[in-house]
Amino acid sequence: MVFTDLFAGEIATELLKMLVSISRKSCRCKSSADNLITSIEELLPIIQEIKYSGVELSAIRQAQLDRLSETLREGLELGGKVLASARWNVYKNLQLARKMEKLEKKVAKFLNGPMQAHVLADVHHLRFEAAERFDRIDGSARRLEQRLESMKIGNGGWMEEAVKRVELAEETTLETLCGAGLDLGKKKVKEMVIGCENSSVVGILGIGGSGKTTLATELCRDDEIRSYFDERILFLTVSQTPNVEQLRAKIWGFISGNEAVDSGHLLFPQWITQFECKTGPRTLIVLDDVWSISVLEQLIFRMEGCKTIVVSRFRFSTGLDASYEVELLREDEAMALFCQTAFGKKSIPRAWNEALVKQIVEECKGLPLALKVIGASLRDQPEMYWVGAKKRLSRGERICESHETKLLERMAISVDYLPKKVRECFLDLGSFPEDKKIPLDILINMWVEIHDIDEEEAFAILVELSNKNLLTLVKDPRAGDIYSCYHDISATQHDVLRDLALHLSNQGNLNEQKRLIMPRRESGVPREWERNIDQPFKAQIVSMHTGEMKEMDWPRMDFPKAEVLILNCLSNEYFLPPFIDDMPKLRALIVINYGNSTATLLNFPVFTNLANLRSLWLEKVCVPQLSSTTAPLRNLRKISLVLCKIGDSFDPSMVDLPQIFPRLSELAFDHCEDLFELPSSICGINSLKSLSITNCHNLCNLPTELGKLRCLQILRLYACPALNTLPPGICELTCLKYLDVSQCVNLRCLPDEIGRLVSLEKIDMRECLQIWNLPPSVSSLRSLRHVFCDEDDISWLWKDVEKTKPELHVQVADKCYNIDWLKEY
Question: So which residues are the signal peptide here (predicted)?
Fold first, then answer.
């Protein structure tokens, strides 16, 4: 008892000091902090009396005091979070303020209840020696420590860490199966990084697919490395065509502690990387997929305490102080990795032809990526299938001295055996820039348009490619839900697999190829293309990746069969290619700007003749001004605007949207910062079935005419913190099936007449901190089947509704914060 009393007394004292600081610093938490100060000042003398009396309470009273101690300890932790929270983080501060209010209520309830009377009545009873009780606590502590030690998993790490390792299974497969080789590599590189003061730039070198990035990633997770650099580790992917200024800005911002710096306003002189500085804390920079010594030299900051790991396929003659070359897998390691992928176990099953398996493993030449991809392609296939694969692998001849080219020839076997549509979808992945996340919305739309499949089949193909290790899905917790937004899901692909897709697509005559792809960014159109412009290009997919383009930079090219055009650029101004107006079959147009600022699109009138265009994706551009003279896009079904400046593009006084987009069914705004109010002209698009407004932090108003969208089935208002009310007209959306208002942290209530939404099946209202009550009409939502919310007061109200509606499922969500999208920009 004395131990608990002492603990509670010290926590109360520390908490009192912290609350004074909070009252001075945080305006949102000031009221709660002041009330808590008053309560704890009243409570502290009672705790001190118990503490110094040496008196033990009864079991019931002691349990109450234990609960108080736990409440104060939580308060101490909460106070630390409040003091550490940055003022600009409005969302987090609102959460903390609400938690402070709950803590205040808890302490007040304790004081106003019977606890004081019980403690004062029993304070002079049942005395024991303090030392005896301390010994008892010490023994319990030792036993508890032993039990916690027994809960460790593997070689250490707790359950939470084990869960993370499961989520990162792609990297940990090699660690599990080839631990000896990986551990040896880690040991050698660690010695170079932290054991040698003179090695400020260390290289991890090896051919594509050999596990270089896996080794670098494991080093970043290593406890000794993390401790040595005090968690100051930055991992960046450079790629073949990097935005060097943007990368320099990120690195310097991380080193200097000013991570808000951008490449347009660099706060360091251009020559700083060439000289050594004697300042800065210990920092580790990891540069993955470096292709050029000239790029590397611009990204190295030789400062005391700053170390750089360079991951590359190439042996640079200069720039590296030390290097480690990743070794290929030994025979036993290769067999274990292949068997795990092909059979789900580390050894060959008894019923299988051992000689055949060994021959296939031998053909993979110890390359981890080849072992995984080929193993996944053969999984669950009959033995005759394996025999055919072995013969094709054995016939793969080296067409040049490059080991990687030979790898591509051998890995092609895994693609040749795919079903035709799945194979075509894999080859389409080469159309996107290397080392960039591919939004699933783009892939799904593209595949639906050109392969004559529906969205469900397209998603199934994605999963199949992922299961065969031909791409990696970056999954959102809602991925695969019938109403999930594909904005939240993306795909990534190993650069060797992208090279494989390009290698297989670039067969035959250039003008006859089904896919015409620029593999990396260039200043303009490739010369090889220009030499062939006298004949039409028969490509179905055209993908270009350039810098800033002017009208005179575009040659006249003929694409009579093109159905998908992907324009990747890095510029402030981009003149759309004139040949767009002569692409009669174009169904999907994707324009993505990877520059530091929003690009202005010129030559927008080329859209005039796009009669068959069905899908339009614009990213990080200024949306062109529409007007009454804009030609109607009669077949356009879907528009996605990501990181765009909207301006007056949808001004109802200047444009008649229903006339321009008569069949539009899906409209999405994502991270559009200048979207303050949804234009009322959108409410006239009667064909609209899905309206998605996500991460638009300045959206504060929705039009009152929203109820005119009588065909609307999906309304997504995710992460719009400035939005505080929903218009009453929303209750007129009788076809609405899904409503998402999650992370609208200032939304105060649901509409009073929400019960009129007779078709509503699902509501997502996670992290809606200001909604404390439900309108009575929710009981009239006869189609409602699923509610997603937080574990707070609102969840209990929904639980009460659930009791009267047996078909309703109320799901309480785990907290999840993710700003990974920022790494791309």
Answer: none
